[in-house]
Amino acid sequence: MTVLSARFAPPGPEFMHRVSAAAWVEPGVLGPEYHVLLTPARPRSAENMEHYRPGLLGIASGLGLGRPDEPYRLGLGLLLVRGIASLDYGHRSSTLNVPYPETWYPLAQRWGRVHVAVGLARRELGGGLGADHEFLSVYRGRRAR
Fold first, then answer.
1. Biggest alpha carbon distance in the chain?
2. Which end of the chain has fewer CB within 10 Å, C or N?
3. Separation between Cα atoms, residue 35 and residue 142, nearest integer Å
4. pLDDT digits (tens, 9 = 90+) for 89-117
5. Exposed/middle/buried for 114, CB within 10 Å: 0-12, 13-18, 19+?
6. 3-state secondary structure the chain
């Protein structure tokens, strides 16, 4: 597995406004699949996407994620408590709250498994599930080369 922790520490709460989170449910081979996708939010006018890279890689590192083609197990990184979904990404005093559609939370809690991905490129917001799939397929295509 790719070791990110040596180079990228989990960012603090001051970075969280720079992260966009999307959660959704879709049918899978063995039943419903629950997903969370973290990407950069819109950059400030004086910033480019490279300003986001260390923080996003720090989140991936704290979650124990590696490259898209590597297996991982998130373990206790996703906390589902009293209607709040929160990612414990390894920072000592901060978690990342995940907004979710109405059906996502109770089903994710019942099934106990969620796919988490961190993308380093900006994705268009408001495009729905189709836009998230397109983002992931393009991103996976880049990594496969």
1. 46
2. C
3. 20
4. 888 888 899 999 888 888 888 887 888 88
5. buried
6. CCCCCCCCCCCCHHHHHHEEEEEEEEEECCEEEEEEEEEECCCCCCCCHHHCHHHHHHHHHHHCCCCCCCCCCCCCCEEEECCEEEECCCCCCCCEECCCCCCHHHHHHHHCCCEEEECCCCCCCCCHHHHHHHHHHHHHHHHHC
